[in-house]
Amino acid sequence: MGGGSDHTRLDLDVIREMGTGLGKVKKAFDGLDKLGDQYEGDFGNTALADKFADFAENWEISREKLTGEIDTLAQIAKAAAKAYEDVDHQLAEAIRGAQDPKRKGN
């Protein structure tokens, strides 16, 4: 690999790590308990409890959407890193083949 490939390698590692990190965030979100279930008897005031229940329900819906989007981004990042790496290997093989005509048959 040439001098510029070190920068490419770093970028691929960053993309791959981003996919892994987003996967961890998704897993953490998936492991959260429902807010309403945790605090439902703690308010004492019915109106306040109802407002919190509304908030908890909206948070649950938003969290599910966000978790889905995070998962999609994680999968895209991982797939992008793999695709770039595959192209890099194919280009390296093509260059080696052009430099050594005996390798073209491999």
Low-confidence stretches: none
Order of helices and strands: HHH
What is the CA-atom radius of gyration, in angstroms? 24 Å
Molecular shape: rod-shaped
N-to-C CA distance: 20 Å
Average residue pLDDT: 84
Tally of DSSP helical segments:
3
Q: DSSP strand (E) fraction?
A: under 5%
Number of distinct beta strands:
0
Protein structure class: mainly alpha
Task: Describe how the helices and strands are arranged.
Layout: H1 3-30, H2 35-39, H3 46-99
Descriptive overview:
With 106 residues, the protein is an all-alpha fold. α1 (3-30) runs antiparallel to α3 (46-99). It is rod-shaped, with a radius of gyration of 24 Å. Helix content is 82%, strand content 0%.
Short description:
Helices cover about 80% and strands about 0% of the residues. The protein has 3 helices and no strands.
